[in-house]
Amino acid sequence: MLDILLPILLFSALALAVIGAVRRVRLWRQGRPSPVPVIKGLMQVPRRYLVDLHHIVDRDKYISRTHVATAGGFVLAALLAIVVHGFGLDSAILAWVLLAATVSMFVGALFVAKRRNPPPSRLSKGPWMRLPKSLMAFSVGMFMVTLPTAGVLPADAGGWLIALVLAAVVTWGLGEMFFGMTWGGPMKHAFAGALHLAFHRRPERFSSPHNASAARSSGLKALDLDNPDTPLGVEKPADFTWNQLLGFDACVQCGRCEAMCPAFAAGQPLNPKKLIQDMIVGMRNSTDADYYGSPYPGKPIGEHGGSPNGPIVPREGRALVDAETLWSCTTCRACVEECPMMIEHVDAIVDMRRFLTLEHGNTPNKGAEVLDNLIATDNPGGFDPDSRLNWAADLNLPLMADKGEADVLLWLGDGVFDMRNQRTLRALVKVLRAAEVDFAVLGNEERDSGDVARRLGDEATFQTLARRNIRAMSQYRFSRIVTCDPHSFHVLKNEYGELGTAEMPSDYEVYHHSTYINELVKAGSLTFKEWKGGSVTYHDPCYLGRYNGEYEAPRDVLRALGIEVQEMARSGYRSRCCGGGGGAPITDIPGKQRIPDMRMGDVRETGAETVAVGCPQCTAMLEGVVEPRADIKDIAELVADALVAGSSAEKGASNKEASQTQRNVEEVTS
Amino acid sequence: MPLDAQSSNAAGLNVAVLVSIGRHPLTARTRRADQDARAVEMALSLKGASVNLMHAGQHDSDHEEAIRGYLGMGIEEVRLLEQMPEADVVPVLTDALRASSPQLVLTGTRAETGEGSGILPYLLAEALGWPVINGLAAVEKVEKGVATVLQALPRGKRRRLRVRLPAIATVDTSAPSARQSAFGPARRGEFDVQPHASEADAALTQWQIQPARKRPKRLKVIKSSSARDRFKAAAAKSDGGGGQLLNDVTPEQGAEAIFKLLREEGVLR
């Protein structure tokens, strides 16, 4: 009897899966068009899956191995089941392989079940709790019905009652694995995930050598503001591009993003996992009532819902997501770095913020004021743009306007208006002079890099600032830019390129000061005295580490100083944000605790007396934590303090003399 | 009703807002003028009122960008009464207001560019024969052609006034601050450009315009020797000092008093 029943079950499940797939694709196609190479993309899926994606999944060894056994077993079992049972190919060898595949899948399913007993809070419950049982149903059912084919049991063993029970188990398994895959069950992640890999919005993340880390492609994509028909950001789910919607649908609700999100940990109303699920809720025209994971802190589940063409954040009242959820994000990209489905959360958040700022004019708290200042004074604090170099009145910094060309363009950033960061800048200038670097600054021609404006969704102001900076820089010749601000570093390096023109190309060679100092150290231009300062830990800035993959240079510099870095539990690509990115200190969404306090807690656990940083934002955020706490020192300060007054000091002295005479001359002529 | 409450229902009210080109105090870049933007905000907060923006001035790219700052607050169109540079805009605005007959005209207390004397609303009121209120803080209600409004007085005081419409009202920094100007609506907003004959302001052409300097403050000489008095003097807000309060005087007596003061201060010689 099973001989007849099995092909019917298999092929009807497959047919339903195909119908479901068509429906699912139509859901995604509600989004905006986005051209992709279809055939090429599909061809790349195996490599992207087995190599690039595995790289990320393998960060959690337990689930990585479980997944290899379960998914590998399932794919093999499913294909063979179609051949053996669907088409009735009576091959004992294939049947034995099929048996082995189901055993592998069953073992995997046991580990899936074990992980969910009890489920950690980051995992979703609901239908996901059913999944291990369904996996077992499929593997056990398939194993049993294959035994006769393999010749272990006679074809008519057990009588029709057993056959009926087996048929029911197989139906359950097929229902979850084939039907559920395209109709929206937990297995949907396999179908959407594979296509997401094929049509990923940032194909650069898959380029060789294998390293799918988010750092490979982290620059935001520009809006075409010259075209008046360009939609300004995302108002409704259907405003996302179709492959973004596809990406959201690939979410497997593992909650790795939730576990890493600093805003979630601080009790701010953001949970990246829920945000992605809400986008799917909107795409499917429903409510979040059938979401079984952690909510946005402080926001009960079941109150929000939306539709593909309804607003995500309405001007008044409630829809899919509340504005404060979007403004809680520090754009630290911890979620993107962590996501095993390579979903781009930060892109989506900035897309929605763009709409709120550019169309609603609704940037919360100090947002509007900061943007107004950026427009009127080119810096977020509203300071006089002609006072940019006031802090360096005694340093006699060489100006690009005077020199015309230099080896290094020193990008100072908006930290020039901040007294704390001025200390860092002074230290950096001291280091550059000690190494006899030929550098110059733009002075009053420099403007805010546009980073904050862009993260606050004001693409128009970002592009204005960026174009004016590009124009200012195009007048001068320099071989590289060095900056101590990772935000400027990221924007100059990764986001200005798109805005250049043929006459004014904007592809710069940009160095964070830690990278540049490291090169100077390697070249032997700096000599240090012995380190006597006690234990030190290092805090990775998000925009240097996760955005640009620079984890080693700052540590190399610290090592060169003779410091043994006491690593925090969360460091490197898992470093916790200081809370200062993405305009979060400006929009200032309240939570239960502050992100920098949590980060300082991480520092405290290492017992370090000093925390080395490489970012003015991190410095400001961490120094805002109440004492007693570790001292905060920028890498440039540590290096400057350790400089030996040796051969380079002599030159330093002669430099000083030179500047002295120059000043005297000026006095005489004036 | 609490003071400074949310402005209430004003269905069918026709509000005209006169807007000018602003100038950032530090960088001198053109922008939406702060007080005029507050006037637009006040008009937008009147529920159900129809808001018409009006600007008399030149039509060039620099000015257009500044005017778009107002449109970005969510306004679809601005009427631009085109004028020559340094023209006297009072006649053209008088004509335009008389023709469009709004019930309420809102504007900032003084412009950030040009003469910036703050006299324009008074000249318009005189020409149109309408009452003028300065320091409007809130419009509480509008009933049967009479508006109940709050006027801001120094030191956070408020005075409730009833005024027969049509009227002109000016807002200053005691009015609620303007909402954010958004790029999308600013880009979409339209200009209804109406060329008008300009009347050259003969006096203005004679003037020499230069950036304002901070006026020197009079030194406060504290004679008292006790620490308490010195502290009080240091902590007290400068009130302008002196001055006299005239109650129930005839306009002639009032004018006489003002004339006397101006002569004492050396403004008139």
Automatic annotation (TrEMBL), chain A:
PROSITE patterns xref list: 4FE4S_FER_1 (PS00198), 4FE4S_FER_2 (PS51379)
Transmembrane segments: 6-22, 68-87, 93-113, 134-153, 159-179
UniProt source species: Kushneria indalinina DSM 14324
Presence of keyword Zinc: no
Cited InterPro entries: 4Fe4S_Fe-S-bd, 4Fe4S_Fe_S_CS, Csal_0991-like_N, Cys_rich_dom, HdrC_iron-sulfur_subunit, Helical_ferredxn
All copies of domain 4Fe-4S ferredoxin-type, residue ranges: 242-272, 317-348
Polar residues bias locations: 656-670
Keyword check for tRNA processing: no
Signal peptide region: none
Name of the protein: Fe-S oxidoreductase
GO cellular component, one term: plasma membrane
Keywords: 4Fe-4S, Iron, Iron-sulfur, Membrane, Metal-binding, Oxidoreductase, Transmembrane, Transmembrane helix
Lineage of source species: Bacteria, Pseudomonadati, Pseudomonadota, Gammaproteobacteria, Oceanospirillales
Annotated spans, Disordered: 647-670
GO molecular function: 4 iron, 4 sulfur cluster binding; metal ion binding; oxidoreductase activity
Automatic annotation (TrEMBL), chain B:
UniProt cross-references to InterPro entries, sorted A to Z: ETF_a/b_N (IPR014730), ETF_b (IPR012255), Rossmann-like_a/b/a_fold (IPR014729)
Keyword Cell wall biogenesis/degradation: no
Lineage per the UniProt record: Bacteria, Pseudomonadati, Pseudomonadota, Gammaproteobacteria, Oceanospirillales
GO molecular function: electron transfer activity
Organism: Kushneria indalinina DSM 14324
Keywords: Electron transport, Transport
One of the Pfam families matching this protein, by short name: ETF
Domain Electron transfer flavoprotein alpha/beta-subunit N-terminal: 21-202
Family statement: Belongs to the ETF beta-subunit/FixA family.
Coiled-coil residue spans: none
Protein name: Electron transfer flavoprotein beta subunit
Cross-referenced SMART domains: ETF
Signal peptide bounds: none
